[in-house]
Amino acid sequence: MLRFAGWSLDRARRKLESPQEVIVAMTDGEFDLLVALAEHPQVILTREQLLDMARGRSAIAFDRSVDMQVTRLRRKIEADPDHPELIKTVRNKGYIFTPEVSGGAP
After folding, report:
1. Which of 42, 10, 45 is nearest to 26 (CA)?
2. What is the dihedral of CA 11, 13, 16, 19, to 10 degrees?
3. Which of 2, 54, 78, 102 might form a disulfide with 32, Cβ 3.0–4.6 angstroms?
4. What was the pLDDT predicted at 64?
5. In whole angstroms, what is the distance from residue 18 CA to residue 25 CA?
6. How many whole angstroms separate alpha carbon 20 and alpha carbon 14?
7. How far apart are CA 47 and CA 25, in angstroms?
8. Could you write out the DSSP letters of every residue in 55-90?
9. Exposure class string for 47-81: b at 16+ Cβ within 10 A, else e
10. pLDDT tens string 46-87
11. How far is 104 from 106, CA to CA, in rounded Å?
12. Residue 34 burial by CB count (10 A; 0-12/13-18/19+): exposed, middle or buried?
């Protein structure tokens, strides 16, 4: 179980619970991406690293699927998806998961 900013991410049951104790519906890709981010808090991860961690595959040139997944994830977990605080873009580098995360190793 990983916890961040009031959220609970249960890797074993593959579920995300909001601070209001609501289960958030997620695709497998969104869930795997959130796990990859939450397991590496405060670390800038490139698109290629995220693809490898979340899907176990290398990035194809111009693969923007990570960007689309991040956009969908932000809509689900950010208070204001247009001004994200949890998943920030680091220009020309990738993404960083900003909250402190508690919980065990994978």
Report:
1. 10
2. -100
3. 54
4. 74
5. 11
6. 18
7. 23
8. HSSPPPTT--HHHHHHHHHHHHH-SSTTS-SSEEEE
9. bebbbebbbeeebeeeeebbeebbeebbeebeeee
10. 988 998 888 765 444 446 788 999 999 999 999 999 999 999
11. 6
12. buried
Structure tokens at 95: 């993404």
Nearest to 30 by CA among 64, 61, 63, 74: 74
pTM: 0.89
Q: Are 86 and 77 in contact (CB under 8 A)?
A: yes
Among candidates 3, 12, 67, which has minimal Cα distance to 38?
A: 3
For residues 78 and 72, the answer to whether their CB atoms sit within 8 Å is no
The whole-number average pLDDT for the span 1-30 is 95
